[in-house]
Amino acid sequence: MQVRVFQFALWCIIGALLFIPPTVRAEDDFLARAIPLAQKSQRETTVPASVTLAQAMWETGRGQSPIGSAKNYFGIKAAGANDSSVNVGAIAEGWVWAWTKEWDGKKYQDRRERFRKYRSMEDSFRDHGLLLATTPRYASAMRAVDDPREFARRIAAAGYATSPTYAQDLIAIMDLENLYQYDLPRNAAQVISQSKPLTVNAGDIFQIYFEVKNTGFGTWSPTADYFLANVSNEADLAAKSRQELDQLILPERNKIWAITMFAPAKAGTYTTTWQLQHGGSSFGPQMRVEISVEPSPFPKQLPLLIGVVTVSLVGLGTAWYLYRRKRQKNRARS
Predict the structure, then answer these.
(1) pLDDT digits (tens, 9 = 90+) for 211-244
(2) Cα(172)–Cα(54) distance, integer angstroms
């Protein structure tokens, strides 16, 4: 009986999945394709992924109508010039005519406008990020990339769309869909590789390393106070507690930190722990390396013994030299 109930439930689930309306499946597929493109745009331009997704959903009806075959997911227009040429920017492959609705201050009017045409959905997302990041009228919005709601308000105020409720509509979509979960943090890091546990002798000079990837949307800069900090306070290993950044690290780029350390005279096991910092805030995983320090293979008295032998040899050499000089003088007299 239990087996039959289980089989019935299983067939009900399969049937429900098979009879999901095609539009719902298409909308889910759109979001699955759009999320990585929006995050890639955020890494390249710092435009919040949540706003990019909300705009694409608002402009196309959740991916259903990217202006026909134009693959234009953001309603970006192609500007006509006085010489009859049309500016489509650096990424679009051309333009198309399409009908749209524009708010004239009192009501919506149907208008036929030129819109940019793209080779792919990815190109449309790239052009959108580039447009916002490089157009002077959106400069105010680009100063609010850490606040998606404020970013939406500022692009609306700058005239991205004529709809008087554009900012509210975008924020409503972001809130309803929780699109903020797809925003990348400004500062984030992933460990690609690092030193394995080491065994060294007391008094040795050695190095450890960490290879770290910038997985946030912010660029790590020496002038912006990014550095690698020793958070273990392992003074016995005598490494500099602050390892300075010596180059710009763009999003999706790697940085290798090589740290010179000194093994203490006391044998034992030491753990050194490091973490990235921006100003006074830590970010990324803590990175640890275990160092096993073994007694030096040389006796502690070796330096003293070497000194004694050296002094003795110098003394013998001097005595022999004086002896030879004295014999030579005696022979000369006789």
Answers:
(1) 999 999 999 999 999 999 999 866 678 788 899 9
(2) 9
Strands 242-244 and 281-294: unpaired
With beta carbons less than 8 A apart as the criterion, state whether 74 and 59 touch.
yes
Phi and psi at 318, nearest 5°, equal: -65, -45
Q: Which residues contact 284 (CB under 8 A, 6 or more apart)?
A: 187, 188, 189, 190, 191, 212, 275, 276
Pure H helices in the chain: 2-18, 22-45, 49-60, 121-134, 139-142, 148-157, 166-177, 302-333
Rounded to an integer, what distance in angstroms lies between the CA atom of residue 78 and that of residue 81? 10
DSSP one-letter string for 165-195? THHHHHHHHHHHHTGGGGPPPSS-EEEEEEP
- The C-alpha angle 66, 69, 71, rounded to 5 degrees, equals 45
Q: What is the signed CA dihedral for 100, 103, 108, 114, rounded to 10 degrees?
A: -20
Q: Annotated catalytic sites, by residue? A: 102, 127
Q: Which residues contact 91 (CB under 8 A, 6 or more apart)?
A: 118, 123, 126, 127, 130
Q: How far is CA 294 from CA 82, 148, 208, 304, in A?
A: 80, 54, 17, 21
Q: Are strands 79-80 and 198-201 parallel, antiparallel or unpaired?
A: unpaired
Answer for the pair 37, 122: CB distance below 8 angstroms, yes or no: yes
pTM, 2 dp: 0.72
DSSP-assigned states of every residue in 22-79: HHHHHHHHHHHHHHHHHHHHHHHH---HHHHHHHHHHHHTTTT-SSGGG--SS-PBPE
The two structure tokens encoding residue 41: 């745009």
Which residues does residue 258 pair with via DSSP β-bridges, in sequence order? 209
Identify residue 160 by its one-letter amino acid code: Y
Q: Is 146 helix (H, G, I), strand (E, B) or coil?
A: coil
- Looking at the DSSP bridge assignments, the partners of residue 261 are 206
For each of the domains in the chain, give its residue range(s) and CATH number, in order of start: 28-182 (1.10.530.10), 189-294 (2.60.40.10)
Reported as a single tens digit per residue, the pLDDT across 51-107 is 999 999 999 999 998 998 999 999 999 987 777 789 999 999 999 999 998 988 888
